[in-house]
Amino acid sequence: MIRKLSFILIVFGFSAVIVRSQSFESSSDLFKRADGNSHTGKLNIIQDPALDTLMNRYILQYKNLEDLNGYAGMSGFRIQIYYGDNRDESSKIQADFMTKFKYISSYQQFAVPRYWKIKVGDFRTQTEATKQYLLINKAFPEAYIVPDFINFPDQNTK
């Protein structure tokens, strides 16, 4: 009997924590102007508060990723062409890639404990990455597509 009662109390405790953690927040709080401009209009949007919370979580997720990586970006894909513990070799492979594929950006990253990665491209979808992968794989057979945090695409090119 005591076990059942303690189990019920634990279940109610966890459910109370879960319900409490799903608070509704307004996205208007995220975009408040700090300059005190009085010449602003007002827009009323009537929507379900759950939608506002989902948008808020999405914005905060990318803000946290930006703080973690030190630059603005989004989730996407890159092609990893090197993974190893030799920095000189990774630099040579990156230079070789840059001479063969001038139009694709490359990134050298250090991974703990002591590995170097060379990732190339900023692809929003796996389809975009696959198109370039088919060309890159001929010159770098060890290449493969990886999900990564990419830079925002340049909107002025197409």
Explain how this protein is built.
The protein is an alpha+beta fold and 158 residues long. It has a domain at 77-150: Sporulation related repeat (Alpha-Beta Plaits), CATH 3.30.70.1070. Helix content is 44%, strand content 21%. The chain has 4 helices and 4 strands; from the N terminus they run ααβαββαβ. The protein has helices at 2-21, 49-69, 87-100, 126-139; strands at 74-84, 106-111, 115-123, 144-150. The protein has a 4-stranded antiparallel β-sheet, sandwiched between helices. A hairpin with a 3-residue loop joins strand 2 (106-111) and strand 3 (115-123). The protein is extended and about 65 Å long. The mean pLDDT is 80.
Q: Give the count of helical stretches.
A: 4
What's the story with the biggest beta sheet? 4 strands, antiparallel
Q: What is the C-level CATH assignment of one domain? A: Alpha Beta
Estimated share of beta-strand residues: 15-25%
Q: Indicate the mean pLDDT.
A: 80
Poorly predicted runs: none
Named CATH architecture of one domain: 2-Layer Sandwich
The largest sheet has its strands arranged as 2-3-1-4
Q: Which of globular, elongated, flat, extended, rod-shaped describes the shape?
A: extended
| CATH domain topology of one domain | Alpha-Beta Plaits
Percentage of residues in helical conformation = 40-55%
Work out the radius of gyration: 24 Å
Structural class: alpha+beta
Distance between the termini: 69 Å
Order of H and E elements: HHEHEEHE
Q: How many strands appear in the DSSP assignment?
A: 4
CATH superfamily of one domain: Sporulation related repeat
